[in-house]
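[stage:ingest] chain + small molecule (DLL)
[stage:ingest] validated
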Amino acid sequence: MWNEAAQTLPVPDLRALQLERLRTQIARVYDRVPFYRARLDAAGVTPADIRSLTDLARVPFTSKSDMREVFPFGLLAVDRDEVVEVHMSSGTTGKPVVDAYTRGDLDLWSDVMGRTLDMGEVGDHDIVQNAYGYGLFTGGFGVHYGAERLGALVLPVSSGNTHRQLTLIQDFGTTVLTCTPSYALYIAEYAAKQGLDPAALPLRVGFFGAEPWSLEMRDEIERRLGIRAFDIYGLTEIIGPGVGSECAQQDGLHLFEDHFYPEIVDPDTGVPLPDGETGELVLTTLTREGSPVLRYRTRDITYLMPEPCPCGRTSRRIHRLMGRTDDMLIIRGVNVFPQQIEEVLLRVQRVEPHYRITVDRDGTMDTLTVEVEMSDELFSDDLADVIALERAIERELHSETGLQARCVLVNPQTIERSEGKAKRVFDRRKVTTHV
Ligand code: DLL
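[stage:predict] done
[stage:export] tokens:
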């Protein structure tokens, strides 16, 4: 196991290490980051007040908007000269968030990404085709550093150019594919369209994340590509990928909690919840130098699994991500995460795992339309069959989510494919709402 000592620390030792690191980190940011000092002062908390891990609950949260307000370097805890690399979120919904890395941070990133890829036993014999985007996005570089740390051969192809992806897999005998789950599916589909059997490609394992994906989607990817697909998690605000990953048990994602301390809070009240209860993941970096973060509200919904894992790692796991608080759709008073809809669609035979969810408003009534692509075989069937299947999917969606949705089966290849993070939900109410 990569960095076995760190990953198998007995739980009491892990807690002691976390507390020691937390105290050091809070004292450090109090000294060096005026933003955090002001926040802690306003809450009446001094670094000396943090005597146990539960005292962390006294520290104010940090939100994405806090980070945007101080763009780009307002949360820096080192001299600018010590920063050797920056990455950013895409900033599609406002100003981006910056993550500034020192040499020490890059070393940490390589280690946690080494741990991640080691979950699938990646080593110097492997060829890692890294189809996450290189650039300001954290996916490309994060995977790259981890693969390099393990001594694997990295093909830094970045996302896109699917024909070349396929050619590279064949020419180099790629054994490890890293990209978003939606892109993995697209590559499989593309290979099949070229008359190849995607499962016969040399790929052995894949590490997929950066967007929500259901277990059903995982099964589909594993089956089509003939690989084991690991779920990997991370976010720009904390370090990028490398916050947590599934091990070979594929039952929850181990958090690298010697570096990133997790809490689950009630998303409405912010009150910490016990292990096992579902809520919003809040993360505190314990060892980051450049961009340390205290109690970051990730908006990701999950729960902590404290049970020991047969793999021997002692870190707590999180259940695979269930959605984001800001992705939850409220339709006629019913709450639903897009992933719940995906789960239903992927269980249906004769449709493809390509779909689009549109929420709109008809007068005062919310409407939900789910478009799904037909398989080629269904496409050539009778119209009556198609209509019958639409009604069957609607019934299934109703029984799973309690929602009355309209299902429309659309022609094969008509829903846009994604090379990065897929956009599948379109909420038109937001633009049509009258103020
Ligand atoms: O997506 C970092 C990353 C790159 C993770 C490559 C995994 C692989 P951001 O662009 O800042 O960073 O987006 C972070 O993406 O808060 C989650 O909502 C979502 N996300 C990331 N991994 C998963 C996953 C990268 N495995 C946001 N399952 C996070 C579900 C995920 N959602």
